[in-house]
Write a structure and sequence with these properties.
Elements: E1 5-8, E2 11-14, E3 19-22, E4 25-27, H1 31-42, E5 48-49, H2 50-57, H3 65-77, E6 87-90, E7 94-97, E8 102-104, H4 108-114, E9 118-122, E10 125-132, E11 138-142, H5 149-153, H6 156-166, E12 170-174, H7 191-204, E13 210-215, H8 218-228, E14 233-239, H9 257-270, H10 275-278, H11 288-301, H12 304-315, E15 330-335, H13 343-352, E16 357-361, H14 373-389
Parallel strand pairs: 11-12, 11-13, 13-14, 14-15, 15-16
Antiparallel strand pairs: 1-2, 1-8, 2-3, 3-4, 5-7, 6-7, 9-10, 10-12
Helix pairs in contact: 1-3, 6-14, 7-8
Pfam families: Abhydrolase_1 (PF00561), Trans_reg_C (PF00486)
Keywords: DNA-binding
DNA-binding region: 3-99
Length: 396
């Protein structure tokens, strides 16, 4: 993921993610078009000859002058009409980028994603984890489903949350046993074992106290840890989460038998194509690069067999008896049109957790990593400040 980024006007050219963003929104570009734009930006101090672009970008391929002209034209069309003159054509010579650039400060999430994970033993299993930043408190991102921390850090929403929080606290991520970079196991554990794994991670980093952020399926783990390890937890955020996955007469917001059967069928016959990861990306953000990321994240996160075991564990989760026992400041965030975990789950959590704050946003941003990211950042910063105001810790 290594690379730098440049900002010019409303645009940001992110080499790490091979992405052009316009006013914060990704603007899809073909790989060839992105490569031309990035090369011209890098060499903005001069007119770049056409022959040089062809030689440097495609040394082993036959790319015609017409193809280069088309790539430059498509790069211009990715800019707003008033800004298309930033890519200037010099007749019979080449092209030059003439905008004023500002180099973007490197993202700490990029650096930690490039570094190898650290490991701690929990029983006979090695649990992988990473840390970013420093501070008087920890923030633990408890990822959902089979999403691994390396793949998560490739998402701009995650890296921006990490960047914002790591200026105030130390941010921890870990891969649950059986997923990501942690040891594969013969059978995935139940919640008590996962609680022990998280305990081991916090021991390894000598955590002074943590705010837990449970995303989706990570919510029950974060909640169970908060109840069973109350002295370690200073705050709790549940994002697109649930207390019970399956529907019941007293829990109509859960998954139906048909939905569960459909997911089982996909895991058995289509796993690795990215459907479960694409599900939490709002439709308007589902670009070709994100589709490719979703497939890669599924493949890296778990094998089909491990995913079926994980689903079996999730189907047995019901932490509703623990909700009244949560003692830490809590916030529940949920999108009203969430396609993965219906909003009734979030409402039920907030209604049962003493003093919990419910934050709903319109739309389908399941993990609050796209349009809902500013809301998530604001609520987590507020939770950190609230945690710091309690005896025993203070933000610097």
């Amino acid at each position: 993921m290594g690379g730098m980024s440049w900002r010019f006007g409303a645009y940001e050219l992110d080499l790490a993610r091979r992405e052009l963003r316009v006013a914060g929104e990704p603007r899809p570009l073909q790989p060839q078009v992105f490569a031309v734009l990035a090369y011209l930006v890098r060499n903005r101090h001069r007119v770049v000859p056409k022959e040089e672009i062809l030689r440097e970008l495609w040394p082993d391929a036959v790319v015609t002058d017409a193809s280069l002209q088309r790539a430059v034209s498509l790069a211009r069309r990715a800019l707003r009409p008033a800004d298309r003159g930033l890519l200037r054509t010099h007749a019979r010579q080449g092209y030059r980028f003439v905008g004023e650039l500002a180099e973007v400060e490197p993202d700490p999430a990029d650096a930690v994603a490039d570094a190898p994970p650290r490991y701690v033993r929990s029983g006979d299993v090695h649990v992988a984890y990473r840390t970013v930043g420093r501070g008087p408190l920890d923030v633990v991102l408890v990822l959902g489903w089979s999403l691994g921390m390396r793949a998560a850090l490739e998402l701009r929403g995650v890296s921006e949350i990490v960047r914002a929080l790591s200026a105030r606290a130390r941010v921890l991520l870990f891969d649950k046993r059986g997923t990501g970079a942690s040891d594969r196991v013969k059978a995935l554990p139940q919640l008590p074992q996962r609680v022990e794994d998280l305990d081991a991670v916090l021991d390894a980093v000598r955590s002074p106290g943590a705010v837990l952020v449970g995303f989706s399926e990570g919510g029950p783990l974060a909640l169970t840890f908060a109840v069973t390890r109350p002295l370690r937890v200073r705050g709790l955020a549940l994002v697109g989460a649930f207390a019970r996955m399956t529907a019941a007469p007293d829990h109509p917001a859960g998954w139906s038998e048909v939905e569960v059967a459909t997911l089982r069928g996909y895991i058995a016959h289509g796993w690795g194509t990215g459907a479960t990861m694409r599900a939490f990306v709002p439709a308007r953000h589902l670009t070709p690069p994100l589709r490719a990321w979703a497939a890669r994240a599924e493949q890296e996160g778990a094998s089909p067999g491990a995913a079926l075991e994980l689903l079996g564990m999730n189907l047995g989760i019901d932490v509703r008896p623990l909700l009244q026992r949560v003692q830490t400041p809590s916030v529940v965030l949920h999108a009203t049109s969430d396609r993965v975990v219906r909003v009734g789950n979030g409402r039920a959590l907030a209604a049962a957790i003493p003093g919990a704050r419910l934050v709903e946003v319109p739309g389908e941003d399941h993990a609050f990593l796209f349009g809902g990211r500013p809301t998530l950042e604001r609520e987590l910063v507020a939770l950190l400040e609230r945690a710091a105001a309690r005896p025993g810790a203070a933000l610097t």
